[in-house]
Write a structure and sequence with these properties.
The protein is of the alpha+beta class. The chain is 47% helix and 14% strand.
């Protein structure tokens, strides 16, 4: 039962993230999540080579820079969605304010 509840919760968070991106970062592209709570976001459309740094400096949001995981992922970041819906909403709102 706990596994089914966890999967349902993560699916709800993934759906919420999709909605929030449409609202606050409409040019963002999200790769499909593959059995994980880590979302990969392509934010190159916003013109920042290191959007993770911009989010930290301008929005006080710490996310993982894509280039830390692979040299070809400048303009990408990794976002942990295993948090409350309220916190995820605040994170994406701050990211939107920082990057746009």
């Amino acid at each position: 039962r706990w596994l089914a509840a966890l999967i349902q919760r993560l699916d709800q968070q993934r759906s919420l993230l999709g909605h929030l991106l449409t609202q606050h970062l409409p040019e963002a592209r999200m790769r499909p999540l593959e059995a994980t709570y880590l979302a990969w976001l392509d934010l190159r459309a916003y013109g920042h080579r290191d959007p993770a740094r911009v989010c930290l400096e301008s929005g006080a949001v710490r996310v993982a820079a894509g280039h830390d995981y692979h040299p070809g992922l400048a303009g990408h970041l990794r976002l942990n969605i295993a948090t409350s819906p309220e916190r995820l909403t605040e994170i994406v709102q701050r990211m939107g304010q920082s990057l746009t």
